[in-house]
Amino acid sequence: MASAGGNHRYKAGVVWDGDAMRLVFLICAAALALSACASVTVAEDDAFLWLEDVHGAKALDWVKAENARTAGRLEGDRRYEVYRRAALKIFTAKDRISFPVFRSGGIDNIWQDDRHPHGQWRHASLASYRAGKPKWRTVLDLDALSKAEGRNWFWKGAECLVPDDRFCLVRLSDGGGDAIEIREFDAVAKAFVAGGFRLERAKQSVDWLDRDTVIVARPTSAEDTTTSGYPFVLRQLRRGQAFGEAQEVFRGETKDTLVSANVMRDAEGRLRATIAERRVGFFETEFYLLSGGKPVKLPLPRRSNLQGYVDGQLVFSLEEAWAGFESGALIAFDLGAIDKSGAKLIMMPNARQTIDAVQTTRDHVVVQLLDNVKGAVEVYRRRGGAWTGTPLKLPGDSSLVVRAAQKSGSLLFVTSESFLEPTTLWWADAAGAKVGAIRALPPRFKSSGHSVEQNW
After folding, report:
1. pLDDT tens profile 40-68
2. Within 13 A of 410's CA, how many CA atoms are on the CB side?
3. CB 306 within 8 A of CB 264
4. Residue 10 reports pLDDT greater than 60
5. What's the CA angle centered on 243, arms 242 and 249, to 5 degrees?
6. What is the pLDDT of residue 96?
7. How many whole angstroms separate alpha carbon 274 and alpha carbon 70?
8. Cα end-to-end span (Å), the chain
9. Segment (H or E) for 34
10. Residue 296 forms beta bridges with which residues?
11. What separation in angstroms does the CA of 181 have from each of 174, 201, 257, 421?
12. At residue 21, does pLDDT exceed 70?
């Protein structure tokens, strides 16, 4: 799928509708095109520099025409409709696993099917979910909301104020794009808060500081918008304030990719740190601790990523060598001593390992690895100033994904999948390294006549 220039970085779930297979094909086409162009050096006299004007009429018209040409080629293939129907059947199957999100002592899930293409925000008790028989209650029906408001709403996530998780800043996209509207929602009353926080459609992000204050990255004009079309100013907005009255707390530059905020809380929900994340390039970031009204730059290389907060520690992964640590290391800083000498190693992948993702529980850092191109999950805890790790006993020769980590406890949900075994959902206890299966998808083909080998 063609697109004009620019960088995009926002959390979002994939939405599958009646054109599911078309989306698959077009994404694959885009990946091939991008890989072919990855090594091209752009000259100042490049005849296609106009594509960098991501909102320009000429660039958007070109994108529309190229997408139409690609779709025509793909949809004209006699195999297209066969594959589209097969994919749609899988993506809308009633026996899919409802992937979990921890909230309010239970489990949330966004469910889409043929009756609810926009999705339902649902909640179930933790006990019923772990038993494999969740008793779902609808919190917000996006199809009903879309119909009532004459919009095309899709879910883009929510930030709920811990520890109660009652009041949430819900992110909605009209049509599924990057630009979102943000509204305050009462998950107990199951209604938007009258007179609550509401930010109209923009490429923006927001999080709670306290019940009456949020921190917002939101572009309002060319004066606070990057060339990629995202915000580079952070503002502190109080309940009842007009956005123009919000206090500026951090500013990047127009040439940046974007600026956002990370609010770090402990297991009881107490605010411990607010970090400004300044993306100076697509792969380069600067981090600033917002404390005492003056941003303090953290002494980290630009090729590093903030992974979370646990037990008074800020956790970062390094993508370049720094301060005696090798590229690829996972490190932690004590919030009270953020300097090079205060950094401690959590884990260093060996020559055949890669850190795939990192999450945190109340007391643990959970590392999702690729080990010899196979999934592994390890949990790390700090004892006496040093970090020690334990592997979870999950299926081997599989792809493993940590779906959710409990911030107030030690529970995890993990899925496994292999070439011959269908996706299985597991619970795991990071504190005791215990695991147990919850449910598995039914097999979609007969695998008994096949085998898998890994050779070097």
Report:
1. 455 567 888 999 887 799 999 999 999 99
2. 15
3. no
4. no
5. 130
6. 92
7. 44
8. 36
9. helix 20-37
10. 289
11. 8, 4, 21, 40
12. no
379-398: pLDDT as tens digits: 999 998 899 999 999 999 99
Q: What is the amino acid identity at position 23? A: L
Q: Which long-range contacts (CB under 8 A, 24 or more apart) does 443-451 make?
A: 444/90, 447/420, 447/421, 450/419, 450/420, 451/420
Give which of 308, 318, 398, 394 is closest to 358, Cα–Cα: 308
**Rounded CA gap, 183 and 170, in Å?**
5
Q: pTM (2 decimals)?
A: 0.84
Mean pLDDT of all residues belonging to the chain: 90
Closest C-alpha among 350, 353, 380 to residue 367: 380
Residue type for 89, please? K
Distance CA 335, CA 272 (A): 8
What element of type H or E holds 370? strand 365-371
Between CA 54 and CA 66 the distance in angstroms is 15
Compute the distance between CA of residue 368 and CA of residue 361 in angstroms, rounded to an integer: 13
